[in-house]
Amino acid sequence: MKLIGTSASSYVRKVRVVLAEKKLDYQFVQDDVWADDSQVPASNPLGKIPCLVIDGGEVLFDSRVIVEYLDTLSPVGKLIPAKGRERAVVKTWEALADGVVDAAVLARLEAHWVPRGDGERSQAWIERQLRKVHDGLRFMGQRLGDRPYCSSVSLSLSDIAVGCALGWLEFRFPEITWRNAHPNLGRLLDKLMQRPSFAETRPS
């Protein structure tokens, strides 16, 4: 398998962590989707990462699709329940974590995208997206409570998605002091960072 993406992406990191936890071999090909010579559109017409090239040259894209596929490839470290409420809860945690990153990315692009001049940027839009980030973090903290993991007694995709989102916020938005408001989320991330899958995929 070949994974196309960047080490700075939370969505790509989520896939890399799952690959590591499932002990699956792959080749990591770094590609900047913003570069004029990016090869990503040849794999994903939407021009988004991650993309996973599998046997026969077929390409899977969207991190949620990819991690669901990967979890079926090995019985090692099952990360997504097979069915029912437990499965829905894990996927909801993933949607929440990805949604926080989605909103933060939109805020960052509005503030820093080079082709847009300062007079064209909307502070109201930035603040709207950052409210979603803060609301999402508050919801995560409330839902986690004093439990050791988000939705189970052991590691699941819930924790991987949340950990990748929190790590990306620390990387791109150090001014958001979410650890002060939600120390339980900080403890979760610190625990996850002790795992090689997280330690070796720190965003850069």
TrEMBL record:
Residue ranges that the Swiss-Prot or TrEMBL entry lists as coiled coil: none
All residue ranges annotated as the GST C-terminal domain in the record: 83-204
CDD domains: GST_C_6, GST_N_3
Gene3D superfamilies: 1.20.1050.10, Glutaredoxin (3.40.30.10)
InterPro entries, per the entry: Glutathione-S-Trfase_C-like (IPR010987), Glutathione-S-Trfase_C_sf (IPR036282), Glutathione_S-Trfase (IPR040079), Glutathione_S-Trfase_N (IPR004045), Thioredoxin-like_sf (IPR036249)
Domain called GST N-terminal: residue spans: 1-78
Protein name, per record: Glutathione S-transferase
